[in-house]
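Question (not urgent): is this output format expected?
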Amino acid sequence: MESKQVKADMPLLEFLMEHGQYSTRTRARTAVKAGAITVDGKVLKIPSADLKAGQTVTWQSLTAKKQVKDFELGGSASDHAKATKAPYEVVYEDENILAYIKPAGIVFASPKPQVKTSFTAMKTWMTKARPKCECIQFVNRIEKESSGISIIAKNLVWRKHLQAQWEQFQRRMYVLVEGHLPADDVLFCFDQEEGKKKRTKHEFAYRTMRATPAHTLLKIDAGFEHIPLLMSGLRRQQCLLIGKGKEMPDPLGRSGLHLFGVDVVGPEGEVINVKSRVPQPFLNLMKGGKGPKAEPNWKRKVREEGDEREQRPMREAASRKGPRPEHKDRSSQGGSGGRPPRTNQKKHR
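Got this back:
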């Protein structure tokens, strides 16, 4: 942890960019919102908050992490162990955690020793490549048919903290569906709580990454525990989650779910952003698809039909009102020099 006294009044975000060694404003803002910054010993989660001269700001030091190299963390190992490649792709590692990508089709962990799992393979490799780790324990689980970021804790403090706070961390998933949704919107889902008549409403923000005539690739702010809710919300939009359930379409032989992002907050407020790439099977299926700016044909057709329904009553009303102005004009002309009224004609005769 590092601390520094404020010399002149300024916004918290500007102070962190100047003294906190954050590479971007986004990272500094994320650290503030995650509760990693304290002012005079109190957590401050407002990036735009004004600091006063004399206050003391404390934040997580980034210098130590930059000096540490991957594959040397957790203690030095032999040259042979360092050269050994991990069984799965490692996307992040420091002295406290290691994050790798669990592929679809393999069990994450199992109490049965005879079952081959991704965690067993990683633990065997880490035992040789990271011999000074205090412990090697998994943090989160990922279902067999799905893929995504799996985190291993290197000590008990971090394992207990991460498991207790896991559902509070910001998580993001790639979700592949059959069907289409409006670009960059919010998916509304409802669940029925036991013993209650009213349903609880949930909102999941998503971003449309790519769309083909049959499928859509989405980014959704959610975790695996939200999947039942997401499936019900997608059905309401006439979309089906690929490979999730016997009745769902399965063009990939796996589910259309991949946990690609986790914003981890450590026991002392350390903020770690773990990310991964789009799975290659997803890209293969979406090959040739267009981004959210390209309006799908179905959406354009629905919009045109909606416009037609809205304009039809206006045209009908206009056609009914059409002859009235002409009738009014003729009557006005008759009263101001047009054909004389019938009573005047009789009197003239």
